[in-house]
Amino acid sequence: MEYIDNMPSMDLMRSEKMTFVQLIIPAESAHRAVTYLGQLGLLQFRDLNAEKSPFQRTFVNQVKRCVEMSRKLRYFKDQMHKAGLLLPPLPASQPDIELEEIEIQLAEHEHELIEMNANSEKLRQSYNELLEFKMVLQKASGFLVSSSSHTTDREVELDENVYSNDNHADTASLLEQEMRSELSNQSGVRFISGIICTSKVLQFERILFRATRGNMLFNQAVADEEILDPSSNEMVEKIVFVVFFSGEQARTKILKICEAFGANCYPVPEDTTKRRQITQEVLSRLSELETTLDAGLLHRDKALTSIGYHLTKWINMVKTQKAVYDTLNMLNFDVTKKCLVGEGWCPIFAKTKIQEALQRATFDSSSQVGIIFHVMDAVESPPTYFRTNGFTNAFQEIVDAYGVAKYQEANPAVYTIVTFPFLFAVMFGDWGHGICLLLGALVLIARESKLSSQKLGSFMEMLFGGRYVLLLMSIFSIYCGLIYNEFFSVPFHIFGDSAYKCQDATCRYQFVPQVIFLNSLFGYLSILIVVKWCTGSQADLYHVMIYMFLSPFEALGENRLFWGQSVLQVVLLLLALIAVPWMLFPKPFILKRLHMERFQGRTYGILGTSEMMSIDDEPDSARERAEEFNFSEVFVHQMIHSIEFVLGAVSNTASYLRLWALSLAHSELSTVFYEKVLLLAWGYDNIIIRLVGLAVFAFATAFILLMMETLSAFLHALRLHWVEFQNKFYHGDGYKFNPFSFALLADDDD
Amino acid sequence: MGFVVTSLIFAVVGVIASFGAGICCNRGPSTNLLHLTLIITATVCCWTMWAIVYLAQLNPLIVPVLSEGE
Q1: Which of A74, A431, A589, A692 would you call most buried, defined as having the most Cβ atoms within 10 angstroms of its Cβ?
Q2: Residues near A676 by Cβ (< 8 Å), separated by ≥ 6?
């Protein structure tokens, strides 16, 4: 007996022992202490200022500064992204910088960047305008030249030309010849030239036509190059147009319509020499602007690169500082306003480490007063903390997804490490597919160090996180596949118990009757099955079980499997019947008695000490909470629990049939693909058909069998664990230990 | 007979694996206990699987039947 007591405990089975502590930190070493605690990552602070809004807290200004800095950092990151620059990896050694320095530098850099961006915006705008002007000049000169080419060869002024409704430039030339002499010096035809997006040109033309009542001529030509549209940052095609019209009113109308459509109008001189002159000017200015723009871009890229060198470091620093200030906001100033008081949970094994860190903080901040760190009692239940490594972590997360274990509750993860892949394998059971899964898992594990530092997509991340689960799943699949190769059977999973320490009401008055009930009925059924296999009897087990309930005292006849069966059955039935009230009734009464005892002692304690201590000095957590023990509620709760268990015993047993169903489905699917695809294709002599068949078989195997079936078996194994396994004993209503740790801050914003 | 022998083989393999884990990955009493638990659970699961499949075939429920007149 002592041997069992002296056996080492398993850390993963029950959560780490936690203790509630109180810290009293002098103000000058507070920041440093919290920083060191964050690096250690083993203390979960409790928020003592939970009722206060974020703006009422002590360090709200610092938090605001940190938020402002992180906004600037995000802006830089954005800009670097847009410029197509990559962030260099974090240099190994990072000298410590002060937060104020960073703030100043960030402000400078932001100012610089914004200025540079504004300048280049303006430059780019002028560049665009000049480019458009150049295109308008090129194309418009085409219109104006062609219209005068049919006249005499001398240079012609076009003001005097009148055009009819006809929109063809060719026929207009005849009219032009006629009309020229008549309308020499009137406010005759003028033109507006400009450029507009291709998508709007049809509408534009139509509205111009309507507005001028047809008294206009519209010429258009596609511009040679595409232009960068500043608003959408894309290259758009533009069309150069020339509108010939007459009259002042038409002019105003046309100008307004141009504005509405976002068409830019540029004045094109009619004189060819002037045109040529202006074109030259525009071209030279364009090349100047180009060089200026390039130089500006280069300058900006240099600035961004120099920022980028420090960016990751700055981001980390700002993040940690903000976290430190958020944590400092959780602490309270004490009466003298010189110390900060904090409370939290920490695991017992971490106490010395925490004390070391606090001493270092006192020393480093050259404070005269040490930090007080002592243990306190807490009313509430401690958080649950399991120390997991890379292997056990995935399984613990599978269990935690259902519910985090209550403090010191038995952790199903210990068995889940084996039973989960095993149940998966029972449903997957094919050693060929198992080998494929094994190869995949081995690849993931072999490239562990490389993949863990990369940022993976969400699907790959899940796959990578579960690489050890995958490994075990594949190994068990190979084993089960080898077994199935012999024969297809109905595997019946027998629920295995383990020795819990029977110390409290839950154990003796809930667990034991549950076990008795379950085993006397379903355990008996399992035994009967094995006996039937061994003896080869023809007994019908359905009838055996049903008549055990309906007519337990009658003769068994042909349903007899072994000697003494009828007596045994009656005994088991009685046991099961007793177990039900046993699990239903005693526990509420016992809990009530325990509660009364606990509260009687406490009431006396409060009366005794109330005169000596003033309530203000007492920290919040030690204040008594008035706990009501509602007997009817507990009784109903227990009844629900018992009914759930009894009914669950039946339904859960039937639920294990899914093991059979899925394994059958898997084997049938693979049979179908093998016979109907591969063998069929192989039957032909044609090599093409064989290749196609092989390809189809490979795709079907990879996507349907390996991916879909894996997910399906995974899901059902998960359900079997969460429902059938865990609802028999697992409460899972704890909360996870969430220490203040810089390592856990990691990738929140991205 | 074959049933007992193979079951013994399973047991022996389980015991050897437990000792092997104790020798090779000796990392503190708690971790050793965890490894032992895992190995025992795995052995029990695998043995149960095999045993059920084996026993179910010992006295088959469906036997080939000679049809009359052969």
Answers
A1: A431
A2: none
A244 closest CA partner among A175, A318, A324, A323: A175
Helix axes B29-58, B2-24, angle to 10 degrees: 160
**DSSP string computed for A285-301:** HHHHHHHHHHHHHHHHH
Burial A56-76 (b: 16+ CB within 10 A, else e): ebbbeebbebbeebbebbeeb
Contacts of B57 in chain A (CB under 8 A): 486-487, 489
Cβ contacts of B58 on chain A, cutoff 8 Å: 533-534, 536
* CA pair distance A539, A542, nearest whole angstrom: 9
Query: β-strand A264-265 against A189-197: which pairing, if any?
Result: antiparallel
**Residue in B with minimal Cα distance to A497:** B41
Report yes or no: A161 and A188 within 8 Å, Cβ to Cβ: yes
B53 neighbourhood in chain A, CB within 8 Å: 483-484, 486-487, 489, 491
Cα angle A63, A69, A72 (rounded to 5 degrees) comes to 145
- For the record, the structure tokens of A213 come out as 């009542």
Low-confidence ranges of chain A (pLDDT < 50): 150-172, 175, 177-186, 486-503, 605-606, 608-626, 749-750
Interface predicted TM-score (ipTM) of this complex, two decimals: 0.88
Q: Yes or no: say if A488 and A671 are a contact pair by the CB < 8 Å rule.
A: no
Question: B66 burial class (0-12, 13-18, 19+ CB within 10 angstroms)?
Answer: exposed
Coil/strand/helix, residue B31: helix
Structure tokens at A404: 């985090």
- Tens of pLDDT, residue by residue over B9-33, are 999 999 999 999 888 888 788 888 8
Q: A528-546: per-residue pLDDT in tens?
A: 777 777 776 666 777 777 7
Q: Which of B33, B44, B45 sits opposite A10 (nearest CB)?
A: B33
